[in-house]
Amino acid sequence: MACRAPRLPRGGAMALLTDLYQLTMAYGHWRTGRHRLPAAAELFFRCGPFRGTFALAAGLAEALRCLRAFRFSAADVAYLRSVLPSTTEDAFFDYLATLDASEVTVSAVPEGSVIFARVPFLQVKGPLLVVQLLETTLLCLVNYASLVATNAARFRLLAGPDMKLMEIGLRRAQGPDGALSASKYSYIGGFDCTSNVLAGKLYGIPVRGTIAHSFIMSFTSLEEVQPRELLPQAGGEPVDLPSVAESWLRRVCELLQTPLENVNRGELAAFVAYAIAFPHDFQGLLDTYCVRRSGLPNFCAVALALHQLGYRAIGVRLDSGDLARQSKETRQVLQACGAHFQVPWFGTIPIAVSNDISEQSLEEFRREVRELLPGRRPHGFFVMFFCALGPQNPQQHYRLGEEWLESCSQRGTWGGWIMSQQCAQVANEAKGILACISPSVASRDRGG
Amino acid sequence: MACRAPRLPRGGAMALLTDLYQLTMAYGHWRTGRHRLPAAAELFFRCGPFRGTFALAAGLAEALRCLRAFRFSAADVAYLRSVLPSTTEDAFFDYLATLDASEVTVSAVPEGSVIFARVPFLQVKGPLLVVQLLETTLLCLVNYASLVATNAARFRLLAGPDMKLMEIGLRRAQGPDGALSASKYSYIGGFDCTSNVLAGKLYGIPVRGTIAHSFIMSFTSLEEVQPRELLPQAGGEPVDLPSVAESWLRRVCELLQTPLENVNRGELAAFVAYAIAFPHDFQGLLDTYCVRRSGLPNFCAVALALHQLGYRAIGVRLDSGDLARQSKETRQVLQACGAHFQVPWFGTIPIAVSNDISEQSLEEFRREVRELLPGRRPHGFFVMFFCALGPQNPQQHYRLGEEWLESCSQRGTWGGWIMSQQCAQVANEAKGILACISPSVASRDRGG
């Protein structure tokens, strides 16, 4: 097995991405001569994910692409021959080799639509055998995509339109492909950007990122900073940034009444080195050592030094501890520095928080921040989000309907033809929810 | 975006599968002239996953393959140029275009080894910039793989050596690649087989599967069964299986004192059709309508009809409701039929259970079954397992060590050179745990 990719070679082996029982059942249908009976199947979910009332339908474009490419290669058929019972007739394998999805039609709500429990949002019609075979593959493509999009939409609704939301789940995802899905469908659900560079390249999603603890920890003193000079934004003589930052650090520590000797010099060096490398894009990660005694004074010193040269820092990030409490402290310190040193924009520097953000912690965070800053919309906040989703997984269902309306109704599932009416009703209900999700998710299927 | 594949084209774009901040930090190192400093990083986790004490290291082989293929294509570099700040020097992009991992060395415990919290199990040494860039990619490849393998090993320890464990997570996974990882690493962790056909083909994992509710619901009466005849196993005249099954059904209903009119005829038809298609591989899914009043009588009737022709049914499956209680009832019915109709093997027909199996439900299931059948090892049980894993995700860490031993130790992480000794100790502790996981996980890296 080679390193994994997000793309299937054209005409590739997706038809085998299914449960074996789909093939044994296919044989059962073929053997009884029912394989070409007209059939319809629908995708729906029984309960809303995350104990909610709605979901966003996603993954539909990929499902369609998969249908178009659906076929078994000669190698696929040879493999199936080796795993199906030896009594399976040869003619069945010959038949599989001729299969494609050209007789299948699909109706579905548009990608990113709001959908509700027990209302079908995708319908597949075609010969029974093919419709049967497609079940697992379609569920695999639509399930996680819808789950991530829904999760993102719920975060967006909680966060309001101003807070920036960033997806950073790559290192915890189910491998490269799970990570790419998370980036893509978080964006469709209302997130602003991702840390995943490959997702940015493949899907045109904005990518963001600056600095991690490891970078800060790799410095021990200002002597390691090379080069030391930075040109002022407006031009002129280059300035020795470490010296300017050190001088600001003394003033900041005095203002904040924090001992200069508690400030970590490696952290200061890392901030200065990063500021020289990216003077327009300096963000301080505050919690490598101590936010209050080291991270904040160092950040303020370097940001004020940059300000002296005509540059603006783009923000700070908190990645551990009590994020709401630390955000409040950070905002107070930034405002105090802004007032004292007469740098008005300093008080509004964006604060990003990351590390295990849940709906609950986001809500608490917003509430606490609102108490601190009444009347302010938290547009200066940026929430990063690990999307490692699991047990809340809604179980989506794919039911064969239409031809077996009667037996289906015994189990309380829908028959196929009720759907079109229901879709219209769903679309109306959905408009209200969609209006709250900003920017419009409908326009976001860039990868589509 | 095309349908997704499990394989990366040779020399493909995995180097971009990282967080953007790895690249901004890489520029920071390059700009300060530190990019070729020797560096070492280690992979470890802080707390055992699933609140446990151990984990299985997995994904290491893929991590190595990724290292070998590591490089930025011209298109990758062009994309990076478009997303990094415009002040980034051109020479940095030229440098990225020359990068590979040829100067990187890796030491690790073997794939499938038992590992413990806070003890590094993979070490990467090489130039600082490359080692830094690899962090997210390696975490992505090792994290989920280790989590799934660990989960599987925990199930295997709970289930004991005789119970068969099957992975059926495809429809709930994070897309095709997440599903393939789940199949592969469940197998490495001690599972027996998977439902995922593509995983079977790619990695040589045994695949299993027979029949779903949709197949059963697609039949309404015995008249739909075509062809109706089956040759006895020992040869001779073909027999009309629906008639034989109907005759057995009457006898079974009488024995079980259950009304014949409550038995669903579509279910009987589906069982008969499947038995004709796969006479050596007939498994009954019992819970489409009612296990006690329909599924069980129908299964026993068809299995006894097959027995009359010299075939043995391979098992039954329960997919909803109280699995332990129903398993007990099922076992009792099978034993009663076996005794009454003098078919000794009937009482030991394997019972498979599926649907939301957790460690807790597996433990309860084993306990209840043990009470019913004291002294019996549950070798007749088969547990199918959805691996939709999430929040229990252990957060794995990748720490730069060696050159920054001092600053690292401030945060309580290990430096690089302690590792080799620790590994020896871990290997000894691990032997005890590995001995309980049967069959040996070490031999299972078929995809390696």
UniProtKB/TrEMBL annotation, chains A, B:
Q: What is its EC number?
A: 6.3.4.21
Reactions it catalyzes = 5-phospho-alpha-D-ribose 1-diphosphate + nicotinate + ATP + H2O = nicotinate beta-D-ribonucleotide + ADP + phosphate + diphosphate
Keyword Zinc, does the record have it? no
- A Pfam family found in this protein is NAPRTase_N
Instruction: Write down the superkingdom of origin.
Output: Eukaryota
* UniProt GO BP: NAD+ biosynthetic process via the salvage pathway
Domain (Nicotinate phosphoribosyltransferase N-terminal): residue spans on this chain: 16-143
The UniProt entry, under SUPFAM superfamilies, shows: Nicotinate/Quinolinate PRTase C-terminal domain-like, Nicotinate/Quinolinate PRTase N-terminal domain-like
User: Is DNA-binding given among the entry's keywords?
Assistant: no
Protein's pathway:
Cofactor biosynthesis; NAD(+) biosynthesis; nicotinate D-ribonucleotide from nicotinate: step 1/1
Q: What does this protein do?
A: Catalyzes the first step in the biosynthesis of NAD from nicotinic acid, the ATP-dependent synthesis of beta-nicotinate D-ribonucleotide from nicotinate and 5-phospho-D-ribose 1-phosphate. Helps prevent cellular oxidative stress via its role in NAD biosynthesis.
- What protein name does the entry list? Nicotinate phosphoribosyltransferase
Originating species: Otus sunia (Oriental scops-owl)
